[in-house]
What we know:
With 510 residues, the protein is mainly alpha-helical.
Amino acid sequence: MSLTTESVTGPTVGGRAERILGRANQVLASRTAFVVVLVAFLLMGFLFAVTIHVPASAAPDEVRHIGNILFYAERPWTAGPFVHDAATSTLRLGEVTRFPAYLYYYVMSFPARAALAVGLDQERTVMVLRGIDVLAAGAGLCALRVLFRNAGVPTAIGLLAIVATAFTGRYVWQAATISYDAPSMAAFFLFAAVAVKVARGGGLRALAWLVVTAMLALMLKYSQAPLVLAGAFFAILFRYRVDGFSWLRHPVRRAVAGFRERPGRSVLLVVIGGVLLALVLERFGVNLLVYRALNPDCAEIHSRAACMNFDIFRRNYNATRSHDLAVAAGTLEPFRPLAFLWTWTTTYFRSLFFFWGPTLPWRPNLGVVAFGATAVLAATVIAATQLRRVLRSAATWWLAVVPVAYTVAVLCFNAATTVNLRQEFAFSGRYLLPVLPMIVAVVLLGLTAWLRRLQGHAATAAWTVVVVVGVALFALYNPISAFFPYASSPAWYSGWAQDVLPHWLTGVRS
């Protein structure tokens, strides 16, 4: 299914329009188009990496991430990634001895050491580390291209889904922030590319890479566990529906044959898998064995008084205590499901496409928000009517089912937090970024299937509306348009940005 595949009942649009669509399909399917998108994303990411002031960062805990990286950078080179004992004062950075996502901090400590060694101050060191995260997000776009190719998604539609991801504000701003989100998403996209390959008929080698990429994704961000488990489960389930377990027969004989056929790749797989397995066992295995949790509560390792130095622990503790006191006093506000759903939906949408800093007020234009929400809702409804035509392979089923399952899980998690604490913790569109590209791809497949069923003037009019709305959304929702018109205070900008960027762009005079 391309943008221009002809309907079985005849041409869907006029000759000239058909030629235009055909040319657009060729351009979008070209390698050059992807390179242009990738370069544009990297340039935009680097711009925001040096523009946004740290306190106004897209990640509310960027300061803590910076602190953890510097903590590892100050340790001797020979100390390794494992911290067995830490002073109580380090708890301002979080619990550092058993925290599952330490690998990101440890790896990033090396460029931090190099930046500090050549005399860069902390602000410029932060810019260097942000730039590395932008590169990781760019690698994620490359992994997405492989994912859509493995899933059998038409190249042009796959590129449009990548464009939608690369130019979604939160993806760019999160990439231009020091946090493990960008590299962990890249790892998940790589895992997803292997998962759809397994679902479509991959063999034991693909299954082995599925395990390896799953371990990598978990080591970079342990909270991806539900998403990774869902992805692996549905990949194996869809494969089982076609071949049963016959594809797993004679594993030893086939593994030996695989080593003989591809010795270099096999050794690489074993080495990377062995290292990651050791890291997973050391961190998750020990945590589960000793503390019965992937990420042990700080108070399980340190005293509660010491853990109060950790802002997230302190926030959760105070919220729990306030909730319990309200229950005892009979003053607890009732949980209102409809109000919760409205707040959840609107907050996730706005914070996905518009900047949502942790400290500064942000009020996106209501008309722009309403236009985008209406367009997204209409496209989703139209695509839903075409699912029977779109979901014809295990790979496309995977692209549809995994995001839905994950989104429902996020909704339930937020609902549980609201019910148990009456707090809106972790209400942010960034948690949907890992599945956004797949959702967009499925919606575009459904929208294209609907357009191909139209004929004559109706088809021409529909294509025109879709293109015009798409261009308008790009103009209003790209990260530049969704940031600079609203960020007119000097508090948003780094010293470099205030000195270099023009006043007409920032609204700030240096």
